[in-house]
Amino acid sequence: MNAVKDYGAADSDPVRGEGPAEPAAANDNAIVSSSVRPGRSVEGRMLARLLTYLGDPALEFVLWTGERVAPPGVAKPVAAVCIHDRAALYGLLADPQVRFGDSFSEGRITVEGDLVGLLETVYRAATAAATAGSGRFSVVRRSVELLRRRHANTLPGSRDNIHHHYDIGNQFYALWLGKTMAYTCAYYPTPSATLDEAQVAKMDHVCRKLRLQPGETVVEAGCGWGTLAAHMARHYGVKVRAFNISREQVAFAREKAEREGLGSQVEYVLDDYRNIAGKYDAFVSVGMLEHVGVENYTGLGKVISRCLGNSGRGLIHSIGRNRPGTMHPWIEKRIFPGAHPPSLSEMMQIFEPWNLSILDVENIRLHYARTLRHWLGLYEKAADQVEKMFDSQFVRMWRLYLAGSIAGFTTGTLQLFQVVFAPGESNDVPWTRDYIYAR
């Protein structure tokens, strides 16, 4: 399903203005009792309990009546969450992870102050609660989690998932990805590096880790708009076969390669990674693993093992997390269907069954936070153009997605792993790590 057609629709029609007298989640025991200030409305008391449940973070709620609710002792909240109608409040209480994003996109919830700071505050509170193992999740909230429909990564399911996110127009992405059209974490060799400089540095960082040599063959799984494949061919003299199931991206990459005289060195294949065949000197995947699904990791490892045989080397670059978990449900539902950022333990299901040896692991999550800040800055400058392409709801939805992603990386909720590996029997492995940084 195309994201443009389904980007913000709530599971039921939104109710403007007055809502039901009693919300379905009002008795949710996940929201524990707390001291309530005299004179507060019923809605204010609900929000006070929600703040207590969250660990009393430094944020404030503002109701449509003008009533303001903040934790005791918080003189200067990071930001204020303004709730503009009763139905938006009840949705927030019933399913905050999904309904906050939907109501924000619809303009029924707005934020006064720093949106990224607000999300960082909430993420830290959620992480603290999860780490403490407080057990305050109610039967109601657990049921909501179980009822969420996950997007499968079967062959047809993967095509639908990728179409939902990537095939919404190259023109849209060109507004804020920079000249490289690289939609993955950049690598900032210096704090002052620009977005485009950092994306080129990321590609060189990957190529050095792969120790590419002229005349070698490389297979890439999930090539985006073809930037890395073209970079490897142009600057490292290799031949590349790059696989992708996004029609718009492949068409863009093919046209650009022909225009730049790289048609004989790079082949962009419109097909799923599962159908990769042939032997290669190197395997690389940057930003695709998030879309594979853990249930398919062993199959991906089989493809890699078949491609490399007893020699060669590979690199997988992926968003991840410190322990197994699921993608934020609003992001998975509205932005990235089928996405799953794996932990390192989950990633081992790719390597262990096929005797693939891990050579190097690097975590560059703060580089992704900086990349996203650059993207968000460019996005905000282009917001009027985005609204003309879609509408104001779409603008707010993607603003929240980019801001939330920044918060995910700055708080450590998300990680960015680069894993270098080789067949277990291969002794063609580096003696030191100098090769990564030597110029």
Description:
With 439 residues, the protein is of the alpha/beta class. The protein has helices spanning 3-6, 42-53, 86-94, 96-106, 115-132, 139-147, 155-166, 170-174, 195-210, 227-236, 247-259, 297-308, 329-335, 344-351, 365-381, 383-389, 392-410, 434-437, and strands at residues 60-62, 68-69, 79-83, 109-113, 217-221, 239-244, 266-270, 282-286, 313-320, 356-363, 415-423. The strands form two sheets. It has a seven-stranded mixed beta sheet, with helices on both faces. The protein has a four-stranded mixed beta sheet with strand order 2-1-3-4. β1 (60-62) and β2 form a beta hairpin. The longest helix is centred in the C-terminal third of the chain and has 19 residues, at 392-410. It is elongated and about 75 Å long. The two termini are 45 Å apart. Residues 1-36 and 134-148 have low confidence and may be disordered.
